[in-house]
Amino acid sequence: MATSPTSPRPTPQLGQGVTTGGSTGHFDIDTHPIYQQRYIIDFECRDGKEIREKGAKPAGARRSVTLDASAYSEPVGSSTLQERDRVEAWASRLKDRAYGKSQQQKRVKVLINPKSGKGQSEKIYAKDVAPILGAAHLSIDITVTKASKEAIDIVEKLDIEAYDVIICCSGDGLPFEVFNGLGKRKDAKRALSKMAIAHIPCGSGNGFHCSLHGNIRSTSFAALSIVKGVRTPLDLISITQGEERHLSFLSQALGIKIFPCDIAVKVVTDDKEEIKRRYHETIELGATPEEVLRENGLLEGGLPKLKFGTASDPLPQDWEVENHDNMGSFYCGNMSWMGADVDYFPAALPNDGCMDMVTIDYSNLSRLQALQLLPAVESGKFFGLPYVKYRKVEAYRITPKNQSDGYISIDGERVPFAPFQAEVHRGLGTVISISGYKYETIGPQ
Question: What residues does the DAGKc domain cover (predicted)?
Answer without folding.
Answer: 103-243
